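Take the subject:
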Amino acid sequence: MIKEQIQKINDKGRKVLSVFLTAGFPEGEKFTDTAMKIIEAGADMLEIGIPFSDPLADGAVIQRSSEIALKQGINTHRVLELTAKLREKTEIPLILMGYANPILNYGKEKFFEDALSAGANGVIIPDVPIEEYDDFFGKGNHSLNNIPEKSAAIFFETGKGVVLDWDLQSKQSDTAPLVTQKHTGVVRNLQNKKLDTVLLVTPQSGSERIKLIDEKSSGFVYCVSVSGTTGARESFSESDLKVLARTAETVQKNKLLVGFGISNGKTARQVLPFCNGVIVGSAVIKKLQTGGIAEATELVKELRAACSSPAILSHSSIE
């Protein structure tokens, strides 16, 4: 579903804007309202961060947002609740992003099943390297591509699970399960039985490693634009762009989205010629911290405009 959505947007002549938000930030119970305003401002996809006390890939801004969310009691279970509530309001791709520890503590198989039930379309777990892919996700990605024959979509409303029975007979007869209209997005995910696993490449990744990651990844490949942790930057160097160009030429199976360091329309336009879209997190979260939802949505609109009319820059112009 994620790859198809990216293709659909690219076919319209623009690049994808994916926004990362820490679940439960800045105010736990108002997170879905915040997320919807970000979506309405122009986000094509939403990455929902699972707060963690030791986020090794994240810079100071996202670390602080995780601390605030954790103090409000936002754990993995609550993230899934918020995801389910958000799924009732939107059909755009929702991707859960978090570290391996909280997922292992929750129960790996249970997390994947509950993520599907909540309406998530994919997961990004940055601290699981390609060498541990089969062990963590299951060889052939079986644990993510299949749900039990008799399954249920679980929605978390006011703290209580509402179970919707999965009707095997209706599935066989190509008719929709007997559920209310607001739950169709989640049921569609269950019918697809698919949770994409998005893997990351970095500036240090060699060509053979990038090819392996491209083969294993689904949904898209997440290209980390620069070395280091997440955080907004003023611009990208010629060297940074050369690495992006090499990565873009190497990734063949998947769409390529670039993240880390994109802070505004200018930096987005620098990298857009080398990818199918951009991922922005720290810059949006910082706006939420300092200027509230009004400034955050203005930034999203600026980024969306950049994605709609990327600057003209060919690979050859930086070689």
